[in-house]
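Possible regression after last week's pipeline update?

I re-ran a chain I had predicted before the update to compare outputs. Posting the input and the new output here so someone can diff against the archived version. Not blocking, just want to make sure nothing changed silently.
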Amino acid sequence: MTKPDKKQMKAAARLYAVQALFQMERSDQTVEAVSREFLDHRFGATYEGDEMAEGDADHFRALMDGAVNWQARIDKMTDRALVAKWPIARIDPVLRALFRAAGAELVAMDTPPKVVINEYVDVARAFFPEGREAKFVNAVLDHIAREARPEAF
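New output (post-update):
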């Protein structure tokens, strides 16, 4: 098996961050406990013959910290991007985790917004292969990105 490149490792870190944020919400575990579990037991692990992707641990940690530290701001931006009848509390918890991870990258990191949007649309496709959610994610993240980083547009 070839070693994944930096881009693949960051993509894996994004996917793991969405899973970890979902797990935090469902289990009431701390960011430290969930992050440790993912870093120790999921990154590059093998389960029943399936090898998990190796992720960029630093990027994962930054996403987790940013999502937790900036959650109130990210959730408000997400609410503004959603229609009034569907506040963030009412959307699918996987999508909520995805918006928080992407929001962390837009608010607290220097990844270009178009890269963030494309990467998290791919994450949405991994969780929702039907494709409808990917279009929704694209629209919401475009709105959040324009609010968080207007200078990039």
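Follow-up from reviewer: compared with the archived run. The longest helix spans residues 6-27. Marking as no regression found.
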